[in-house]
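Example (one chain per record):
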Amino acid sequence: METKEIQKLIDFIAQSGLDEVNIETTDLKIKVKRYGSAPTASLSSSPAAPAPSYAPATPTTAVTHSAPTEPTVSSPTSPSNLITIKSPMIGTFYRASSPETPAFANIGDEINPGKVVCVIEAMKLFNEIESEISGKIVKVLVENATPVEFDQPLFLVEPV
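Predicted structure:
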């Protein structure tokens, strides 16, 4: 594992809010713990190789900028009958497969079971998240390219 890959992993963990992560293979063992607000990392190789130690750079504080929000669809529905699509994993939320392509699901779009509504990237793997319900997207709860937690609400859907 390259130093850059380790640093990316540490940055990802810092953004995710996890306090401790252990990754162990036959050749490599990585343990990342967060004490207070700054994470520390230790790296050790198999006994045949020397055990290098890498200290991460101080994590940067994420600054959120207010971006123009999409207009909400005015409907007489009450929040109690809306269904929430939640994240099935920890990762980075993307509304489209690439910056040049349109979003999978926008406010007002009709969705059916099996329709891809977003992509969550975790450990360089892009996982398509499919809807399990039919309905109309009422609200997108997460900004594009931001970290999400397991079971975090992503979309509000009005069932059809």
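Caption: Residues 46-77 have pLDDT under 50 and may be disordered.
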